[in-house]
Design goal:
With about 375 residues, the chain is α/β, with parallel strands linked by helices. It is built from ten helices and 15 strands. Strands 2, 3, 5, 6, 8 and 10 form a six-stranded antiparallel beta sheet that branches. Strands 12-11-13-14-15 form a five-stranded parallel beta sheet, sandwiched between helices. It has a four-stranded antiparallel beta sheet with strand order 1-9-4-7, with no helix packed on it. Helix 7 (about 230-240) runs parallel beside helix 8 and helix 8 (about 255-275) packs parallel to helix 9 (about 295-315).
Length: about 375
């Protein structure tokens, strides 16, 4: 090696905290979270199909091919339970390997863990694994004091999960998690931003952050690049029973102002036919970094925001008191340009700001 030639940096060798922790414990019992007392949230058709999938496998309405594929991404899914375990391991079989350039493998394909009851959940750890593999076994925690804890595991945001198993010691007790404040579901329809691109870990997608502020079940129906407001999606979403709120956050994929002017009123009307009183919250898109440099982008955003606002106001004038509008250009704050990974998709900071802004709005809608 030449005197000034640098060696490649191997942080895994240099930093023990970055190494993969595997259990190697033969006394671990493996449990399927599909069985009681575990509770799985975020998959509207789970009980019928037993699949970690966000839309029905055989819908009554034809899905666009891209939406059908993206429905296998498990964004917003959660495994919830209570246990006195001192150690917790997960074993996962993915549909594929991590393959994104600007999103971490832990966000795309990992699980992360929160400990605590409603309103008191604290982040503990993430599955750090060999991202070239489609299967992994990772210790979430070990050698903890043996006391009762409420656990929430957030599913990967941008990959499918074929199997997941929870590893606990044989003497560990398992119980159901606390009940939600209300059995109604909060349905969030939108784009890659809704799906969670590009959070560093699953718990930082804004729908997952909101689920820690509001003790309800959230269904994340964000479809990367393909939240276009098709009427077929409106029909399928209207089949989800017991909705408590529908959030429409799809302007970023609307294709054009003209198409948005067609899809948004139709989407709302289709949903209203089945759910005349369910609150609907329409959110315009966040500010992109390039909006400050390209006048046409800023103009398009302003026009589309005004159309969404007018649509909501017109329906309220006609007697629909349960439809609302939120100006998404306020979500990231004054220094919005600091809140994305690529000028469009939020980082964890961006998602936290989105949740901070939306939580009080959503809480007021639900209380009304």
């Amino acid at each position: 090696m030449m005197p000034n030639e640098q060696q490649p940096v191997n942080a895994l060798r240099l930093d023990a905290n970055m190494r993969i922790q595997q259990s190697g414990d033969k006394d671990v019992n493996w449990y399927s979270p599909l069985e009681k007392p575990f509770h799985i949230a975020g998959f509207g058709w789970l009980h019928e199909e037993r699949l970690y999938r966000r839309l029905p496998a055989q819908p009554d309405w034809k899905l666009p091919e891209a939406v059908d594929q993206l429905a296998n991404c498990t964004a917003g899914g959660q495994i919830r339970f209570e246990t006195n375990a001192a150690s917790l391991t997960v074993k996962v079989k993915l549909s594929g390997t991590a393959n994104m350039y600007h999103m971490t493998a832990t966000g795309q394909c990992g699980f992360d863990c929160y400990i605590g009851g409603p309103g008191e959940q604290l982040y503990y750890g993430t599955t750090v694994y060999d991202h070239t593999q489609a299967e992994y076994e990772v210790v979430i925690f070990k050698d903890m004091a043996r006391e009762s804890r409420i656990i929430t595991l957030n599913f990967p945001l941008y990959q499918g999960v074929e199997e997941v198993w929870i590893g606990l010691e044989r003497e560990d007790q398992i119980a159901p998690p606390p009940a939600y404040d209300n059995s109604g579901k909060i349905i969030v329809y939108g784009t890659s931003i809704t799906q969670g691109g590009c959070a560093a870990r699953p718990g930082m997608a804004y729908t997952n952050i909101l689920s820690r502020r509001i003790n309800r079940e959230f269904l994340n129906l964000g479809f990367s690049g393909n939240g276009k407001g098709e009427p077929e999606l409106a029909h399928i979403l209207s089949d989800i029973p017991d909705p408590t709120c529908l959030i429409l956050d799809y302007e970023a994929n609307c294709v054009s102002t003209e198409l948005l002017q067609v899809t948004l009123p139709e989407f709302i009307s289709i949903y209203r036919n089945k759910h005349p009183l369910t609150p609907i919250l329409v959110i315009s898109r966040i500010i992109y970094a390039k909006d400050k440099f390209h006048d046409q982008m800023a103009q398009d955003r302003a026009e589309r925001k005004q159309f969404q606002l007018r649509t909501v106001e017109q329906r309220r004038e006609l007697g629909d008191a349960n439809i609302y509008f939120y100006d998404g250009s306020n979500l990231l704050g004054e220094d919005a340009h600091e809140c994305t990974v690529d000028g469009v998709h939020p980082t964890d900071l961006g998602f936290l700001r989105m949740a901070n802004a939306l939580a009080p709005v959503l809480q007021k809608i639900l209380s009304d």
